[in-house]
């Protein structure tokens, strides 16, 4: 296995409930290191661009409105096998299906308001990191 970087978002339902630290602790306890982080309020354009791959899905409008509803924390996470590791720590998209002890099982409110985003492949991690961060903002 290799050291990888992946992209993470702490979503509005979590920032609103003051769970930023709780989520970061679960990521760190799982072996990932935060090498870049910023709290931002997404514009409609930025949220739509980020989720463009889902633009034909029935929940797209709801998803974009949700992601703009409160601040989010965007992060770059680094570690062994970071892409898959982050997905493991996050748990399944629907918290009802998420394994006990995962972020979504512990904190998510619903399939939409599910507390975290994580890149689903190394290729998408690179694209998503570049969508939010320049090289100088990532300090490993
Ligand atoms: P994941 O975030 O686990 O990679 P997807 O890429 O399939 O999941 O979906 C992106 C996001 O869209 C989800 O995290 C969730 O916030 C939202 N979403 C997915 N499916 C639904 C749904 N059926 N209803 C409402 N929102 C959804
Ligand atoms: Mg996804």
Question: Can you count the helices?
Answer: 7
Please report the distance between the alpha carbons of the first and last residues.
18 Å
- Low-confidence stretches are none
User: SSE order, as H and E?
Assistant: EHHEHHEHHEH
Approximately what portion of the residues adopt beta-strand conformation? 15-25%
Mean pLDDT: 98
Assembly state (oligomeric)? single chain
Explain what you see.
It is a single chain. The protein is α+β, with helices and mostly antiparallel strands. Helices cover 39% and strands 20% of the residues. The protein is built from seven helices and four strands. The chain has a four-stranded antiparallel beta sheet with strand order 2-3-1-4. The longest helix is centred in the last third of the chain and has 11 residues, at 122-132. It is globular. Residues 54, 59, 62-63, 93, 111-112, 114, 117, 120 line the site of adenosine-5'-diphosphate (ADP). Adenosine-5'-diphosphate (ADP) binds next to helix 4.
Produce the secondary structure layout.
Layout: E1 3-10, H1 12-16, H2 20-29, E2 33-40, H3 44-50, H4 60-67, E3 72-80, H5 82-90, H6 103-107, E4 116-118, H7 122-132
Antiparallel strand pairs: 1-3, 1-4, 2-3
Bound molecules: adenosine-5'-diphosphate and magnesium ion (MG).
Residues 54, 59, 62-63, 93, 111-112, 114, 117, 120 line the site of adenosine-5'-diphosphate.
